[in-house]
């Protein structure tokens, strides 16, 4: 799985008809900055409102997942979102000039194909994974649905479907590596049963449905008269039933294509939690309603975890900036360069690491019998961390120098000793104005706050 966030290199457009609305639309995937996430923009509406791809914005689950915000609605978002998750993309603005993404061939493959024509771009920020901390379970006894998420340092999904149908039978599909989504899952098309088709049509749904973009499973004997009525409904001169129990002459791409498509839907619906996931997802008979209810449970757990102020640090992950990259930005040098790497950096927040060792020169005279990392150097290390943040706001940081100009409400909570690893986090308290930044800084050791302060810094252009 990717460590860094990704967007796309250039805008790319797909066009087609919406499955349920029957309205033609152009959908353009556009590059987006770090921590932007997935957002849809209805450019056909006044003010071009934006709709966040968020589970709290789900308003309808009639055979697809529909989101709404700021007076704008986007229907059937799951195939689009599944494509982005499958490509491990984090930040995209999806501009749409209609109410629904094009159904294309009923899968996610055409979206992936278009995106890969322009390619992906790595961004200078770590992916903000939500790692499932403990078992999360959703059960709907009335529909015999059960979905569980288990802790795992990866993202794997297994889906089982059983429709009590002699044609479809029981099926299962698994995705053991998200990088295999394109090859193994993305081309699996949407499907429905023949007995559902007429009900969907009468419910004013599947206006854009076509035998070329959906699999219709024939689970009973059908008379010639019914086939004629179906042909009229679908606007076709003639329809037939193949021996596999599939309407017309559509060939299945996989024997378990329906189960694979259910897994595709699950990937897309779970994208609505707003962060990439790490965990093992096991789902029995999932559907959009269950997927969204489950996503809400995951998001609730995520929000509870966010109440903890302690940044996570995995030393095995590649940093956003190593010591050589830091030295390209900050003017400080040994023995006064006091941070070792940056593990997170966006427009408002930065997190750095300081490994405290007994070999540092100040320990020779600073409490030599009981070595303690000096508080004034903790402040300096935090200031250097904040300097990285403010320099990140200009396009040419090499031409600027950050200066520490003020400190307020500084408190030292615990002693820091050799062998400790300090995590520094600085966050802007307000937008930078006239080159002056005000930040809230905290330092953590072993999950405990050891120091905190409010700091002011200025960035000054170097003289030529």
Structural class: alpha+beta
- Based on Cα principal axes, name the global outline: elongated
Rounded to an integer in angstroms, the radius of gyration calculated over CA atoms is: 27 Å
Largest sheet: 6 strands, mixed
| Mean model confidence by pLDDT | 90
Question: How far do the termini sit from each other?
Answer: 44 Å
How large a portion of the residues is in β-strands, by DSSP E?
25-35%
Tell me the helix content.
Answer: 10-25%
Number of strands: 24
Low-confidence stretches: none
Structure annotation, total helices: 9
Family: Belongs to the LpxC family.
Protein name: Multifunctional fusion protein
Subcellular location: Cytoplasm
Function: Involved in unsaturated fatty acids biosynthesis. Catalyzes the dehydration of short chain beta-hydroxyacyl-ACPs and long chain saturated and unsaturated beta-hydroxyacyl-ACPs.
Write a structural description:
The chain is of the alpha+beta class and about 475 residues long. It contains 9 helices and 24 strands. Strands 11, 12, 13, 14, 15 and 18 form a 6-stranded mixed sheet that branches. Strand 14 (about 155-160) and strand 15 (about 170-175) form a beta hairpin. Helix 1 packs across helix 6 and helix 6 runs parallel beside helix 7 (about 290-305). One of its GO terms (molecular function) is (3R)-hydroxyacyl-[acyl-carrier-protein] dehydratase activity. It is found in: Cytoplasm.
